[in-house]
Design goal:
The protein has one domain: Beta Polymerase, domain 2 (2-Layer Sandwich), CATH 3.30.460. The strands form 3 sheets. A 5-stranded mixed beta sheet has the order 1-2-6-5-3. The longest helix has 11 residues. It is built from 5 helices and 10 strands, in the order αβαβαββββββββαα. The chain is an alpha+beta fold.
Length: about 140
């Protein structure tokens, strides 16, 4: 469902987080949602197309997105992050993977960062669950 709805995106997009780890074939559990990383423009169009809900809860001091929403129609919720950034020592840094690998699921292609890029991203996120997941892709 994600691949079909993201196919019209103008910019590159990626699945990140635990779903990306699973798409790479590593045993990660549980995969509770799918994190979809897109440009802000594409995320806004995507969210309008799927009719997903906007942000709920307080903003994070560690992460921010120009566009954020959750699409609940698929079997797993899809968290859409457009213009995603990470708080770093030198200010907010955009999160944009350097690589993009296709993973086929049925007759659709999903895109993920390479294993080294995914691991670096998880390490940069720095939360306990991200650091644990980074060990899975070592």
């Amino acid at each position: 469902m994600v691949a079909a709805m993201a196919a019209e995106a103008s910019d590159d997009w990626w699945i990140i987080g635990s779903a990306a780890i699973a798409l790479h074939g590593f045993p990660v559990t549980p995969v509770r949602d799918v994190d979809l990383l897109m440009s802000a423009r594409d995320a806004e169009i995507f969210m309008k197309r799927v009719g997903g809900g906007g942000r709920t809860g307080p903003p994070s001091a560690k992460f921010r997105s120009a566009v954020f929403g959750t699409w609940r129609a698929p079997p797993l919720p899809v968290e859409v992050m457009g213009g995603f950034a990470l708080a770093a020592a030198n200010g907010w840094q955009p999160v944009v993977p350097r690589s993009r690998e296709a993973k086929r699921v049925g007759d659709q292609e999903l895109f993920v960062p390479s294993v080294p890029d995914l691991k670096a991203m998880l390490m940069a996120f720095g939360r306990p669950k991200d650091l644990e997941r980074a060990l899975l892709v070592s």
